[in-house]
Design brief:
The chain is 60% helix and 4% strand. The protein has 162 residues and is mostly helical. The protein starts with 12 loop residues before the first helix and ends with a strand.
């Protein structure tokens, strides 16, 4: 959606093109998408789901990222703690022989390990537990500060900014 301005009226790029140019551009986009469908897909990847403990850690990281993003400046991510998680994640995700898996494989692992419903339930549970009003930045900051003070598994991924 961030590139939607290209196709809007006003000062958008498409406005400057003639009707013939617009038609040619639309045809080119259509051809690219059609050709993308003709490419032979990669063979299916056998995917082993992540351990429950690592799944929960990834949920904590995701909630920490959302808390920082919505707090808007009052909190930061504890990058040192994220670095500590990296070897554990790599140990579970690396394929045989220590090969780094493709993005497709990693996406498949995450999709198999974390269902949308499970993620949604945990996010909504966190929001309710911490009395967060989604549109109010300060409530995210207070929730994050409480996580840090209580030294929770989620709080270890957060830092207070001054």
């Amino acid at each position: 959606m961030e590139n939607a301005w290209l196709f809007r009226g006003g000062s958008g790029v498409m406005q400057m093109w003639s009707n013939k140019s617009r038609l040619a551009a639309a045809a080119a986009f259509a051809m690219v998408f059609a050709l993308a469908g003709c490419v032979e897909p990669e063979p299916p990847v056998p995917v082993k789901p992540l351990s429950p403990a690592l799944k929960q850690e990834l949920m904590n990281v995701g909630l920490a990222v959302e808390t920082v993003r919505n707090c808007r400046g009052g909190l930061g991510l504890n990058t040192a703690q994220l670095e500590k998680l990296k070897p554990r994640l790599e140990a579970e995700v690396l394929g045989e022989g220590g090969e780094i898996p493709s993005k497709r494989t990693i996406d498949a692992i995450l999709k198999k390990s974390l269902s949308e419903k499970e993620v949604q339930d945990q996010v909504f549970g966190y929001i309710q537990k911490r009395d967060i009003v989604i549109s109010e930045s300060q409530t995210w900051c207070v929730a994050g500060a409480k996580e840090i003070a209580a030294k929770t598994p989620l709080g270890k991924y957060l830092t207070l900014r001054k």
